[in-house]
């Protein structure tokens, strides 16, 4: 409460006002339910919010974001269904279109996902399904994933996300020491953590 008032006062000092209707409260890992107010008006509590195209939830995980990404990638693929069914385009052309128009939508923001086996499997299942349709492989036909990836020049989703993550980490570590992104990556919070195994994070 005091911090919110301090931020509001500091903003007002330079001619900026906090918009009460657009400001939301997302509580993470806390039992406190006291309302957050600005000028006597309570701010709305929310469970999730979207920031720069990525969904952030109160659990701090990536499940909601991945689910939304798969949904958007499905929509992108359906828009290109005529291209996928075309007899005039080669398989290589179809795969290139899939990589640029569908896969980029699917893996947007994957550099910072907290991945689990379940998340990787959902992503891989969607990719494999699209590739099988591009190659016109029926559901009853038996073909291994390795053969599927070889014929479409693909790598496993887990490996692709890992490469994107290392590339992003490299860019971040090359930033100035006072950069907020670099500080957030190397930040070591103080205090005691809760009992039990820590959740998987980008650094664990």
Automatic annotation (TrEMBL):
InterPro entries tied to this protein: DUF6451 (IPR045609)
A Pfam family it matches: DUF6451
Record-given protein name: Uncharacterized protein
Organism (species): Schistosoma margrebowiei
């Amino acid at each position: 409460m005091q911090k919110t008032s301090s931020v509001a006062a500091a903003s007002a000092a330079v001619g900026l006002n906090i918009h009460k209707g657009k400001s939301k409260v997302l509580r993470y890992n806390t039992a406190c339910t006291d309302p957050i107010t600005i000028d006597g008006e309570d701010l709305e509590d929310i469970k999730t919010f979207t920031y720069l195209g990525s969904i952030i939830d109160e659990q701090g995980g990536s499940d909601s974001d991945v689910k939304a990404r798969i949904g958007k990638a499905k929509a992108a693929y359906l828009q290109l269904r005529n291209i996928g069914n075309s007899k005039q385009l080669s398989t290589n052309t179809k795969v290139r279109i899939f990589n640029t128009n569908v896969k980029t939508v699917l893996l947007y923001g994957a550099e910072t996902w907290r991945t689990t086996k379940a998340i990787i499997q959902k992503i891989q299942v969607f990719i494999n399904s699209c590739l099988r349709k591009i190659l016109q492989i029926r559901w009853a036909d038996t073909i291994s994933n390795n053969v599927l990836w070889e014929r479409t020049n693909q790598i496993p989703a887990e490996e692709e996300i890992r490469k994107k993550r290392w590339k992003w980490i490299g860019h971040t570590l090359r930033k100035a020491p006072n950069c907020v992104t670099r500080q957030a990556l190397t930040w070591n919070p103080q205090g005691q953590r809760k009992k039990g195994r820590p959740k998987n994070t980008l650094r664990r």
